[in-house]
């Protein structure tokens, strides 16, 4: 007979008004294994985890921990039952030290006074056991993203978590940090911990998991193991149809350089140099991908190209030989730039605006949408309906507030608006971050189509798979510099990962 | 001008500065605790006015300063309960709720004063240490010491308590579990909540502490001045809120700000009485503390970041 699983969730069903979030979901986790939950946004993963943490009450079904029916009513009761979670957005207080973050919510051995020295000693013990080197005395804001994640893991281990949920833990890590994390997770499973790994990065899922459960539209669509499946199969199971993971890219002859960056230096928000002496050409008919861990100057570079952030003296930005170094966003757009910003809800669209208003955000002043001084709403409606259909933006109506659409649909809306102007250069930052595979596939195919038609595309992405799948040339940014530029055919993931971590700087 | 720069006049001016600083210090320390938990209370001035009137009235009727302090404390606590309930449990906007508390305190303190007292009657001022019963004799010789005496010993008990509160509040915030919770909920309430720290409870208590200190600050003011009148504080509570920013949410620097404010005010009054400032320019001089504070705020405040969740109500979803 098999051992009793550490956790088993039986026939969990949860409905929200109008939505069946979990439909008869069952899965279990054994001690010492990594069990992956794979699924698109809205597939029901986070609802399931919120049920596990007592934030939602299931309509029916039961949770068993170590064979016993468990009643989990709050995150605190989950912690008490040795269930821990590393959230995608870290639950850390940056102004507190590592030890304070770990001690938060625990009873102090000294009553009213804190016992941080005791906590620090225990943290050091845990760190040594699992190779999680972190200084307990340091303020969390001084730590790198990878280190912060280790603090989150320590928090769970300190509370004796026997089952640990990791929600998209690799989204913000460099390839090297991902490798380090996997070593740590393996040590934990060797010690008997059960791990629920939530991710949509298929190759990582295949590398780390012992078992995989795929969810779609609230239902389990399959249980499998890495040995029995493949990336393609997993993607198809997630989406429910055959998916093209990498778009077909026909050969296109390179045209002239359309976007030119020369000696581009840019200051960041804090006044320090964020981009240093960047030189880059993007030619007609190519996609240049900028790889790098976020925070290495990509955002500032994009904002400068879009005319939103001033460049330092001596820099130059031009599109089709029109100098745009000091141009306003309007002039930059007039020169042929389309911009798909990284923060789609902050910089890409106005959340409270209707779908049609966001579609018209750039060109509403054009004569074709006007009748005298007033809007021609009939024409506007036709125009917007056409764009929504063409880009298959799923929206109840043109008057729907944009913020109520899913991330993928908002991104398709922005793409529709940006491509409508027939740009000569497209700057796309994180075009598919947080976007479903299906929508990502569509956005990718649109970018490739534009490339085929002779548009120069600069794509910034933290997702190396996306860069490798789409780019013709790859530039790696590290600490504000472009430390490596390589043709796609000659690029390997290992090499790019090293460059992203700064290895090229010393070479 | 030369009369001002004699040791004894300087010492006396500094002594006055310390006394003036006390209501600012008490109110600003309280506001520091509240803001560290993520709650801005713009009603400090109103709470001070009501606490100030309560203390004044208690002393007027019973001649007991201890009772005056207790009444100021109680009024502050009550106002804190109202403000905490509205902002923490009803998720009201902190800015406008604070203005409401201020306007209530301003109007209600004046109404009570008009109804219960009418014409301003002076009360017995807060006694300095040497005037205290029983222990007063111990301090008498100390006050007589030149320079040091008026500077350090010619003060009332609340002055010393206020300055002792500076390390006490630092200790509370930095060395206790409650203080750690306060800092956590002021910075990232979601994180604190996920670990079982009650954001509502922590903020509630922090607001009560802050408001209680505001009530005591008002009591100190009216008992130091030995009088009450319409709008007695004249904006001290708002300055106290500004001092928290000035002091970058650290009790020590808040104290420095309160002392600076007291010093500028004391110097102005001394200069006026010595005729260094001409009569006609007294209005301009009266603005000096405000102007200096604003300048300091502009220069300093942009450099430090406050609690990230300041003014943001917390809810789970």
Describe the protein in words.
The complex is a heterodimer of chains A (507) and B (317). Chain A is α/β, with parallel strands linked by helices. Chain A has two domains: 7-239, P-loop containing nucleotide triphosphate hydrolases (Rossmann fold, 3-Layer(aba) Sandwich), CATH 3.40.50; 257-336 and 423-506, P-loop containing nucleotide triphosphate hydrolases (Rossmann fold). Chain A contains 18 helices and 22 strands. Chain A has helices at residues 45-52, 75-80, 98-103, 116-130, 145-158, 175-190, 202-208, 231-239, 298-305, 329-334, 344-348, 355-359, 377-390, 407-420, 437-452, 464-470, 493-500, 503-506; strands spanning 7-16, 19-29, 34-39, 60-65, 68-69, 83-86, 163-167, 194-198, 211-216, 219-224, 257-267, 273-283, 287-291, 316-319, 322-323, 337-340, 370-371, 374-375, 425-429, 456-460, 473-478, 481-487. In chain A, the strands form five sheets. Chain A has a six-stranded mixed beta sheet with strand order 6-7-8-3-9-10. A six-stranded mixed beta sheet of chain A has the order 16-19-20-13-21-22, with helices on both faces. The longest helix of chain A is centred in the middle third of the chain and has 16 residues, at 175-190. Chain A is globular, with a radius of gyration of 25 Å. The mean pLDDT of chain A is 90. With 317 residues, chain B is mainly α. Chain B has a single domain, classed as ABC transporter involved in vitamin B12 uptake, BtuC (Orthogonal Bundle), CATH 1.10.3470. Helix content of chain B is 72%, strand content 0%. Chain B has helices spanning 7-36, 44-62, 65-89, 94-116, 136-144, 148-153, 157-175, 177-187, 189-194, 199-225, 236-246, 251-273, 282-301. In chain B, α2 (44-62) runs parallel beside α4 and α2 packs across α10. The longest helix of chain B has 30 residues, at 7-36. Chain B is globular, with a radius of gyration of 20 Å. The model of chain B has no long low-confidence stretch (mean pLDDT 89). The interface between A and B is medium-sized, with 25 and 21 residues.
